[in-house]
Amino acid sequence: MNHYLNAQRKIKKKDTSTTLKDKSFRETVSVQKKSANKETAGVVFKVQIATSKKSIKLIPVNFKGLKNVSLSTENGTFYKYNYSSTSDYATAKRNLEIAKSKGFPSAYLVAFKNGEKISVQEAVK
Q1: For 19, which DSSP code?
Q2: What is the Cα Rg of the chain in Å?
Q3: Which CATH number fits domain 37-123: 3.40.50.720, 3.40.50.1980, 3.30.70.1070, 3.40.190.10?
Q4: Model's pTM, two decimal places?
Q5: Which of 21, 43, 58, 73 could make a disulfide contact with 123, Cβ separation 3.0–4.6 Å?
Q6: 28 vs 111 pLDDT, higher one
Q7: How many CB atoms lie within 10 A of CB 96?
Q8: Which residue has the higher pLDDT, 40 or 116?
Q9: Is the pLDDT score of 46 beyond 50?
């Protein structure tokens, strides 16, 4: 039983002190923890990195090492892959640069308010 508790402690310790090799990703994570920008309250920014007619497993190796990739679908036949999610516009722009530097040159920002897609221009007003 003691061995089990020690193993659990190691897992918890590893979960809370994730080692991130990419310095810019670490900076992005720390910025995301700050409070949301009042001007964009209720708005979520994501970086769209890819679209596909088939589903791709959401693991970093499939997205050139990017973590925090999410999937949305339209009618179950068209898949959109988004990197990160933040309510802070400045953080979103940094995330866009990270995605481009990882090999997604056509990546762009998308914005959502209350789950509905809106233009980025409307989101930053």
Answers
A1: -
A2: 17
A3: 3.30.70.1070
A4: 0.66
A5: 43
A6: 111
A7: 21
A8: 116
A9: yes
